[in-house]
Amino acid sequence: MHARSALFDVYGDHLRSRGSRALVAGLVRVLDPVGIQAPAVRTAISRMVSEGWLEPVQLPGGRGYRATDRTIRWLDDVAARVYRAAVDPWDGHWHLVLVDQQGERPERQRLRADLEFVGYAELTPHTWISPYERAGLDEVLGRAGATARRVRADRVEPSPIGAWDLPGLAAAYDSFVAEADALLGDADDAPAERADEAAFAARFRLVHEWRKFLFSDPGLPPELLPDDWPGHAAARLFSGEAARLKPAADRFVATCLD
Length: 258
Prior knowledge:
- The protein is of the alpha+beta class.
- Helices cover about 50% and strands about 15% of the residues.
- The chain folds into 3 domains: about 5-75, Arc Repressor Mutant, subunit A; about 95-155, Alpha-Beta Plaits; about 165-255.
- The chain is built from 10 helices and 7 strands.
- The strands form 2 sheets. A 4-stranded antiparallel sheet has the order 5-6-4-7, with helices on one face. It has a 3-stranded antiparallel sheet with strand order 1-3-2.
């Protein structure tokens, strides 16, 4: 687990209700139970500041860092997708984005990853498709310096569903369910003095692994998925365990940050 990724998890999952800010020392204490060391935390913070994800603030206890407005918007969108607060009804139309991007290969690869992250799949070279018009598309294109023409289609032939690797995604969901006990570890058997810390670590691992589906699951409407889609059972398991562990995890974070 990389420190930068872990910090995004902390800001997205625990700090949004605390003003999206924290002392450096508090962040170090929070991440210690999941094996992230202090030098790695500080290096990751510095990198996130240079990239515009965090900004320094003076807090009562000393120097801290706040998520920028851009980061807060992004984390709000991520949280809605992680916890699957609502599934938008599908009107049966497809949204195509015809991308024109100049630049070097690293920039093109980053754009590809960002488009996949927000839910598009590459149908043909430079043509991306989704059953929904995705939030965050304008920011993704702007960050890459790309322009795009958008087309709304009643039908796409042949069916574009093959643009997504649904068999691979189904296997990943099956693996998540099979490995859930290992992710949760000994949270329920920890001694009383470590119960909150153990709950935090277990929930953190669970959420961290679940967030990976943001890069592979486009959030397709039920009409396009098999009736026995394993993502449904995996989502129920995740939601139930994340909710069960949250009160204790929140108590641990509070002891680290207050």
